Structures are given as structure tokens and as C-alpha cells.
Fold this protein.
Amino acid sequence: MKKIHTAEAEPKVAGTDTGRPRDARATEAILRAALSLGMEDGFQGLTIDGIAARAGVGKTTIYRRWPDVWSVVVEAVMAEVTQISPVLERATARESFTDSMKLVAKSFRGKTGKLLRPLVGRAQFDESLRSAISERWLLERRKSSRAILRRAIDSGELRADLDPDVVLDALYGPLYHRLLLPYDGTDVRLSDAYVDSLIDTVFCGLERKGAAAR
Amino acid sequence: MKKIHTAEAEPKVAGTDTGRPRDARATEAILRAALSLGMEDGFQGLTIDGIAARAGVGKTTIYRRWPDVWSVVVEAVMAEVTQISPVLERATARESFTDSMKLVAKSFRGKTGKLLRPLVGRAQFDESLRSAISERWLLERRKSSRAILRRAIDSGELRADLDPDVVLDALYGPLYHRLLLPYDGTDVRLSDAYVDSLIDTVFCGLERKGAAAR
Amino acid sequence: MKKIHTAEAEPKVAGTDTGRPRDARATEAILRAALSLGMEDGFQGLTIDGIAARAGVGKTTIYRRWPDVWSVVVEAVMAEVTQISPVLERATARESFTDSMKLVAKSFRGKTGKLLRPLVGRAQFDESLRSAISERWLLERRKSSRAILRRAIDSGELRADLDPDVVLDALYGPLYHRLLLPYDGTDVRLSDAYVDSLIDTVFCGLERKGAAAR
Amino acid sequence: MKKIHTAEAEPKVAGTDTGRPRDARATEAILRAALSLGMEDGFQGLTIDGIAARAGVGKTTIYRRWPDVWSVVVEAVMAEVTQISPVLERATARESFTDSMKLVAKSFRGKTGKLLRPLVGRAQFDESLRSAISERWLLERRKSSRAILRRAIDSGELRADLDPDVVLDALYGPLYHRLLLPYDGTDVRLSDAYVDSLIDTVFCGLERKGAAAR
DNA sequence: GTATAAACGAGACGGTACGTCAGGTCTTTCT
DNA sequence: AGAAAGACCTGACGTACCGTCTCGTTTATAC
């Protein structure tokens, strides 16, 4: 399958070290240009010509590193996005998720949201982009989050019969939902209060206590 | 703001009834062509030229009805998608959501998923498309679902302090999450079992009963 | 074999009369632009981009009419060149050729020379161009010239055992030779005096009269 | 004026003898590559990249020796072409030219024609190439041929009032004409019979003997 | 023998033009 | 007056070479 790939990943022939080496300054300039143009005019309007012009670089220099615009964008965006919102660990799972999700919510409200949305958008018809996002963004976070869940189950804080992925879907799914598909005209907010409400709803469940005990 | 609009919406000059009337067969042929081409080659590859050719129609005939390709797609897709998965009402909220969400999951697994995904994707950088989806798809469903929730709270089945939108996010968010961003290579399934597990998780909550009581 | 072709020659599908017709003004603008750019910067430096820009025309409009730059040039140049130097008929063959060849020499000294040289140059590695020149320029002239020769032989002015093409080669060959391959630094002139000298040399022959009579 | 120059002509700084000397094998390989690529695909399609690849040589190694592709070609071709057809001397001018021109005609029919044509073609818009051909090819031959003519005039074989260059144009011009601009579809032949006919025509003149005597 | 110097292969660099394709508009003729 | 056809200008695409520029290596003379 076609794969989104990193700039240095494929120097044409794998084990070559002859010839002039790639110019790291050019690589940076391209990524910077892609990012700034994308933020200004929207990523869907990005063109190789435009990036090359802004970066002060020939088109070939871009094509030598990436096969198309979106591979550039993925690299540029991912470099910005990753580790903006790390998964935090607190005493309890509830606290851990509250803090981590507030971080995510905040980043979605800001630059990260602006960067991630067009990427996820494009990913709906670009399979390689889809897996790039999954690998570089989602799976990374899932791994840490699953560990937190596991510990919370072991410690007795959480029910033992939970499927970690279902839990994480229930917690983070709403955030992605609101990022991508706000369902009313007034931009649906991803506020800290929303995270609190969400955490409370999912951790405590929907059913009335009395009913649950019945 | 620019708006996605329907074919018949604007007969160029509002109150005209002279001249040759629009050919309904052409309209249908265009929508059919758009849909079939999109299913075959992916919607991102759709071109006005292509649709016109497939429909056996001049480009102008398309431009007379819609301002651009994506307006055509929205109309074509929405006609297919709407009322494929109605919101069902059962005795309890839990049963209602279980059945409704299984219907949604099923449609996501099939044609509807294939049609909805590129639309949502494109919506990430097309504001008018975004609101078209929200109005024609999401809000419709929210309305019915909120009513179910309200009744379940009144009947005592559910906690009284719930925010309906937060609840609906927690239930449906995961479905959209998995539709749009499967987080592992093996296509994450939207199976009926998944819906069951999700319902159980959210309805009962994450916390251990003893802990919750503490 | 690939063929240099005229603008109107192939309207894509032969018998079509629907659709917007080709714009004759565009065709003229392109030819004019090609000619003026060629005269200014040399024909070898002509680019489709440049012609399109100068003509105020899209590249496609050019490609719709001709397959490449040189087909444009042939058409532009030939329209200029043909009938600049018609084959003249005088009382005797000697007078006819003297006048005709002076006309050719003059045109070679001027614009026609400037236009024809790059064409002939390019023709050395473009077979279709070569035959285009032959058909539209050389054969045309040969036909009239052969007729003159034939009449002169019949009238007794010229030897009966001559091969017309060899004669025409001997007369015109030197002109082309000097046009294309001047053999000393000081630009070899194609003066009227040169034509007179050439005519005298070829008509009278090289051998001394006494020797010839011997 | 820019000048076509030989490989060894300019070792960058004249009087240097330190450093690694130019590799003669590389020079040969380049010329061989240029020639073989040119014969295969046509000289107009020659690229520095291609020659370098075929010769197994870096592009710099070429640029160190010649300023551009055509300088390479001139050197490669001239080395092949020169002294393929020397000017022969026989008892009479007529015999000398008959034999010399048959040699030229033969070489034009073969490899030399194939090599010379693109060179002459390119020379129509490359002034330095034009003078290179004139100096290395034409002038050389003129010198010897003029001497033959002079002797023939002195000996009384030829008319005394002839302009040698006009005579040579009349004799060789037709050969170049047919090499460069064959005027009918069936490749106009430069056969030995053609040379005989040409010699006869030009030496004896066009006019009927009676008419000439009148 | 160890500097110094230049040539070597490889290949990246900023560019220019290519020929194609799609966009959205305009201009025909036909119905 | 709408429809079908297709020409119009615009501008991006991805490719091929250009001629220049590093690289690290090799091969000579000079000290």
C-alpha cells in the first residue's frame, strides 16, 4: 500500500551515502512554508508551486522528499501536533482523564484543531493519510491511556469487566465528534466544563443509582 | 455565507415561468452519474467534466442547477442517506438507543458509511458543507433522541442531572470516531457486539459499584 | 508518419458543427505572436508558454490547434514566406531565371532568409518539418521552374539532353548553400551580382569555348 | 564571440600542473557516448544527463571540458567526419571534381550525412556552431578546390573569366541542397550518376552550342 | 611521506518549460 | 429560452533537463 512517508525516510536508494546530501534547511523551509500557507489560506488550497515559492525552493526539491502535497502536510502538521497534548497521569483514572482530556479539548480549540481537522478531512478519502494519523497520533495516545485504565481496574477504581477501547471511545469519541461535526450553527464549544460534564456522565453512568441497585 | 443548495431551489431568476422548463430527467441523470462515479472512483476524484460525460449532459446544464461539484454530491448523497436509519422508540431509553445505534452502526458499515465519510471529510474545509450535514443529518436525529432522553429522565430510568447533548455525544461520538478514525490497521469494526458493549459501558458507568457508593 | 498540419485541418471530430466554433482571432494572435517572438529572440527559443502569454491566449488554445511549437512556426512562417518570391516568366529561360533568382536572393537577404533558416535547421532532425518545407515551398517552385525549362528546351534555347532537376539544383543549390553555410567569416553575400555571375557560369558552362568546340 | 572549443583547449587555469590530471578515458567515453546516443535517438534529443549516464561519468566531468552539449557533438562529429572525403587531384579539373564529388556524395549517403545534417541544422541558430563548421569543414575543402580550379584555368581547360567560388558553389551547392532539402517524398538520391549528370551540366553549360556561338 | 591540488562519481540544488487536466465561463446551433 | 457541445482563459499538475553546487574519494605533483 502507498504510505505517507517522512522526508529522510527514502533517499532514493536506501544505502547510498555518495553525492551531495539533502539540505536540512530546505526541508525545514518547506515544512514551515506548508504550515504557514495552510494556516493562512486553508490546507485544501495548498499547492506544490505555492509551497515551493514561499519556501524559496525548487519544486523538484519537494518532490525529491515527498510524493505529493499531503505527505508534506502530514509531516508538517504532525511535527506540530504531537506532544502538544501528552497523556497525563494522576492518582486516579478519573483525574488522569479529566486533565488529559482538558488538554486535548484546549488544543482542539486552538491551533491543533485547525491543523488536525483538514488532515482528518482529507483522510476520509486518502487511505495512507488515514493510517498515518492513526499510527502517529491515535495509537500513541491509546497505548498510554490503556495502561492507565489497566492500573485503575487493578486498583479497584474501575469495573473489571470493561473493554478498554470501548471506554476510550466513550471518553474521546465525543471530543472528536464535536471537533469534526458540530451539530448546531453556534460553534459547539469544547470547554473545560464540557469535559467535566462528560467525565461525570461516563464515569457515573446514565442510570439512576436507585435503578442501578435495583 | 455560501450555502449548499438544492437543484430546484433557484431557477436562476426567481419568478420566471416562461421558456423551456428544466428537464427533470437531466437532473436525475446528473445525480445518478455523480453517485455512481463517486462509488466507483471515490468522491474526491469527481469532476464536473466527468459527471457531465457520464450523464450525457452539457457542463452548463450542471452549472445551471448547482454552483459546484460538492453541492451535487451533497444532494445526491443526502437523498440516499436520510431515513436509512430512523431513530427508533422502545419501552426504555436503553432499548431505544441499543436498537437505534445498531441501525446506525449497520448503515455505517455499508453504503451509508461509504457515502457519508467523504462528505464529512470535505466538510472539514468547506463550511457550507459542514452546516449542510449538521442540518440535514445530525440535528434531525438529535431532536428525536433528546425527546427519548427527556422521557427516560421523567420516568426515572435515567439520572435527572444529565445534559442530553453530553449523553448523546457519549453514545454516538464513539460511532463517528470509529467511522472516521479507525485507530488500528485491522479495520475497527462497528459490530452489534460493539454497540452492546458501548451501551453497557455508558449506561452503567465506569466506576465500580462499591466505589461509586463510597 | 507524423505530419505538420494546418490549424483548421482537424477540428477534433471531422463532421461536428455543434459547440462553440474556434475563434479565428485567437488563431491569428497565436501566429502573430509566434512570428514576432521568433524574430525577436530566435525561433529556437520559442516556447508554448511564451507564445500563449504574448498572444493573450491559454496554452490549451494552442494545443487544440497544433501538436507542438514547430507546427505553429511552420504555419506562421509559410504564410509569410510563400509568394514573397514568385517564379517569374520572361522571354528566355536565362532571363526568367535571372529575375526569379534575384528575387529569391533578395528575400534570402531579408526577412524570408531569417525565417527560413531556422526552419530548415530544425528540419534536419524533424522529418515532418522537412516534408512540410518540401511540399509547401520547394515543390511549388520546382513545378513552375520545370515548365520554363521545358519550354526553353523546346524553343531550342537550351540543350535537349538536360535533366531539369539537375539544372535547377545547379542554379538554386548555390543560393541555398550560401544561405545555410556561408563559408567564410565575412557573411557571404547573395548579391544581384552574384546571381549574374552564377547564371553566366552555369548557362555558359565551365569549359573554354575553344576546348568545348574541339 | 562565443566559440566552439576543443576539450583540451582550456584546462581552466593555463599553466597548472599540480593536481590530478584530466582522465583521457573519460574524455573518450563522453565522445563515444554522445556519438552513439546521437546515432540512436537523434542528436536533438541529446542531454548532458544522458551522455553522463551512458559514459558512466559525472556531469561535472563533461562541463569541465565543454560548455554545452553541442560543443561535445561538434567535437565528436568532426573527429569522425574530417578527412573521410579528401579533395582528390586528377589530370583534369573535370576528373578531379568528378572523383571528389563522388566521394562527398557517398559520404553524404552514409554515416557522414547522418552526422553532418543535425550539425548544419543546429548551425542555423547557433552562430558559433556555424563558424565551426565553416572553419573545420568547408574552408579546408575550398582551399584545395580553388587550387585545382586555378591550375585548370592556367592550363586552358577552363574559361579564364570564372569566379572560383561561384564555380564551387555551382558544383557543391547542389550536393548540399539535396542533403539538406530533398524536394520530394522519395528520398532524393545523391548517386554517382547524379554527380556525372551534374558535372556534365555545369561543365558544358545549359545553352545549346549553336546558340552559345551566336 | 606527507601536503596540496585538482579531477572524479554522485547527486542535490533553484529553475524553466513541458504537455495534460480540470475549473468555471462563454458562444454556438438545435430543439 | 433551455440543452448539448465544445472553445475559451486560468492555473496547478508531475516530469525532464538545465547548469551550478556540495560531498567524499582518488590520483597526481611538490615539498
Observations:
- Chains A and D do not touch (no CB pair under 8 Å).
- The CA atoms of residues 118 and 205 of chain A lie 33 Å apart.
